[in-house]
Amino acid sequence: MSLFSIADLHLSLAAEKPMDVFGPRWTDHAKKIEKNWRAIVTPEDTVVLPGDISWAMSLEEASADFAFLDALPGRKLIGKGNHDFWWSTMTKLNAFTAAHGFSTLRFLYNNAYEVEDYIVCGTRGWYIEERQQNAREGADYKKIVAREAARLRMSLAEAVRLRGERPTPILVYLHFPPAFRGFVCRELIDVLHEFSVRRVYFGHIHGVYNVPRTVEFEEILLTMISADFLNFVPMITMPCDF
What we know:
Radius of gyration: 17 Å
Number of helices: 5
CATH superfamily: Metallo-dependent phosphatases
Strand content: 15-25%
Low-confidence stretches: none
């Protein structure tokens, strides 16, 4: 049993939303995802997908994309991204997946999961780029970041509870990077330090392929797992990383 990670699938199987406008790497990307996924992920594995899963605007519209994911091998832990407008309450998300028979889909939402030799938790995060902090209709940056920091703290508290006295590593998955190329979301970094988090995985960044997969920031290892950065191959998390 293994743990894999990949963000930003940007599926649109029920709507016309071509992704190759963002570069040739995105051509037929859903087919690439399926082929690569089936080549390495088994039914006993788990894949974490921290955000931007589907372009759908509602849960019902997302059903084709959810069916695509559910049919792939392994259990999936899904987080929220800035384009996941279908996202709802945990009660509604669970009811929707149950009603449609999507048995392999779970959601990262103020909670944590014990997966293989790890504890997995996380939240969406928020923009770190100053020019985008109020990108959507004058969004209140401070209020949103405070909310995301509170959600991260809740999920980490649950992770600590699940871990108990064991030395099990806690892995944090965010959609937005908490630090990238000089920009820092200090509120989230402070929460990570509060819980002595060592490993963080993030997506959101696209079209940037000439950077290291993992960088260290204030003793936190930040790993980019955007789908196009990984060339649409789910990345395995290895015990030797720790």
